[in-house]
């Protein structure tokens, strides 16, 4: 089955470019488009998308309110924020609200297909510029030393940093998806972080991904 994508962006050229890019992918179907935040909930109700591509800045309710409403009413829909904003406060807000991805528009046409496939597979996708902004911010504080990790934990950290989904990680490590999720949670606890994005930031700082 194709991944059902709903695109909401107030710029017609961006919508056209993204739709053209996704139309070339056999496993991705753009089921609907919209141009304001006012349309999001009604279009989600109409099209029941697997993935919602949501512009951060456009006419309509505040983006945080929109994300919260979608998460509450359509919990199975994965949200990727599509934006030109690379401000840490925006990024922190969206991550805290549970979005699955944060994609800068300057990278959209080259990364959007992989981002959609990653979040649909229960992974997370954040633009490299976003990840490095987190790394730069954490560099201002004392850098945590790399703890002693097992070979399996190192493999898991590398695959998370590469954007692999839980399914892909499970296939590579011979684990069930539920076991992968438990392993990620255990690794978060071991490294003293609260989310996968923080794990990925640590992976960048320790040289597992450029």
Largest sheet geometry:
6 strands, parallel
User: Helical content, roughly?
Assistant: 40-55%
Structural class: alpha/beta
Return the CATH topology of the largest domain. Answer: Rossmann fold
Contiguous low-pLDDT stretches (5 residues minimum) are 137-142
Strand content: 5-15%
Report on the architecture of this protein.
- The protein is an alpha/beta fold and 210 residues long.
- The chain has two domains: 3-135, Response regulator (Rossmann fold, 3-Layer(aba) Sandwich), CATH 3.40.50; 142-205, Arc Repressor Mutant, subunit A (Orthogonal Bundle).
- It has helices at 12-22, 40-47, 63-73, 88-96, 108-120, 128-139, 151-161, 166-173, 177-191, 196-205; strands at residues 3-8, 28-34, 51-55, 78-83, 101-104, 125-126.
- The longest helix has 15 residues, at 177-191.
- The two termini are 33 Å apart.
